[in-house]
Write a structure and sequence with these properties.
- GO terms for molecular function: glyoxylate reductase (NADPH) activity; hydroxypyruvate reductase [NAD(P)H] activity; NAD binding.
- A 7-stranded parallel beta sheet has the order 8-7-6-9-10-11-12, sandwiched between helices. Strands 2-1-3-4-5 form a 5-stranded parallel beta sheet.
- It folds into 2 domains: about 120 residues, NAD(P)-binding Rossmann-like Domain (Rossmann fold, 3-Layer(aba) Sandwich); about 180 residues, NAD(P)-binding Rossmann-like Domain (Rossmann fold), CATH 3.40.50.
- It starts with a strand and ends in a 14-residue tail after the last helix.
- With about 325 residues, it is an alpha/beta fold.
- The radius of gyration is 22 Å and the shape is globular.
- Bound molecules: glyoxylic acid.
- Glyoxylic acid binds next to loops.
């Protein structure tokens, strides 16, 4: 019998190719740039398994070009790039990479919290531009993070890792909002469930950490920014679509909130004329939540193991809930 074929649509390194090659024929896009859609569609014509970064859309077009496809493995925890209905109809399994990135993403969220509160990026530019003078101390003030209130919207595994840092690292009061209350986490972490509006109104730091679904599209919109404290800092490390970016830009420009720390945007990479690029009270990162060498290499290996399990007819550990049989 012919070996199954797996295509890796990103430069994942030779270790993962070696692992997959023990079981399957393995092809890989080995350039350090995103694979053009046309090349991807050509490369997957005979593929049984596909490993992708989370920004490749798995839709009807892609699925129709890969009639043998049995499994698509995201190297991301989010899977809003999957057309779940189309995948289900074609019996294509989808997997993600949960858990192993929790701590790296939580660290990144705190990078955003601290750098916005203490204006680290803005003041780095200030030093480099030779603007630092004796006596300008007051111009350099930021706000405290410790002992203040953080509100986490979406208390999944990453949300819990953020709560832990906030509570035990920074003595913060931690509020959370989630579809379901999490009593065990409340007891373990000493955190409090709050209604959505209460959290928005009371928090000094509002962290958006929900997956992007139909229900969370623009969850934070004009109304929510109006309800925030004018000293609040808004952090988004989930998906750009969970916030109305126009409303956010307005709130940052007219002093409705103090600042924002963003890792995600409505359009990625960010467009050159995005007004966020002109604002000083926002820290902008290029969607790097899980992007440490160790975590990303663990994620690609996890995706590869998922692919091999499915292709060997075994149960894969990380099939996304909507596509579980
Ligand atoms: C990154 O955004 C992920 O979903 O892992």
């Amino acid at each position: 019998m012919d070996k199954s074929k797996v295509f890796i649509a990103k430069n994942a390194g030779q270790e993962v190719v070696k692992y997959i090659s023990k079981y399957c024929d393995c092809g890989m896009w080995d350039k350090n740039s995103g694979i053009p859609r046309k090349k991807l569609l050509e490369a997957i014509q005979n593929a049984d398994g596909l490993i992708i970064p989370g920004d490749i859309k798995v839709d009807e077009e892609l699925l129709s070009k890969a009639p043998k496809l049995k499994v698509v493995c995201n190297t991301a925890v989010g899977y809003d790039n999957f057309d779940l209905k189309a995948m289900k109809e074609r019996n294509v399994v989808g997997t993600n990479t949960p858990n192993i990135l929790n701590d790296s993403v939580a660290d990144l969220v705190f990078t955003l919290i601290l750098s916005t509160a203490r204006r680290a990026v803005e003041l780095d530019r200030y030093v480099r531009n030779n603007k630092w003078h004796v006596g300008d101390e007051k111009n350099l003030f930021g706000i405290d993070v410790h002992h203040r209130t953080i509100g986490i919207i979406g208390l999944g595994r990453i949300g819990e890792a953020i709560a832990k840092r906030a509570k035990f690292g920074f003595d913060m009061e931690v509020l959370y909002y989630n579809r379901h209350r999490k009593i065990e986490a409340e007891e373990k972490l000493g955190i409090k469930y709050a209604g959505f509006e209460t959290l928005i109104k009371k928090s000094d730091f509002i962290v958006l950490m929900t997956p992007f679904t139909k229900e969370t599209y623009r969850l934070v919109d004009y109304r929510e920014f109006e309800m925030m404290k004018d000293t609040a800092i808004f952090i988004n490390a989930s998906r750009g679509q969970t916030v109305n970016e126009h409303a956010l830009i307005g709130a940052l420009k007219n002093g409705q909130i103090l600042g924002a720390g963003l890792d995600v945007y409505e359009h990625e990479p960010i467009k050159k004329d995005n007004p966020l690029l002109e604002l000083n009270n926002v820290v902008l990162l290029p969607h790097i939540g899980s992007a440490t060498e160790k975590t990303r290499s663990d994620m690609i290996m996890m995706a590869a193991e998922n692919a091999i399990k499915v292709l060997n007819g075994e149960e894969a550990p990380n099939v996304v809930p909507e596509l579980k049989l």
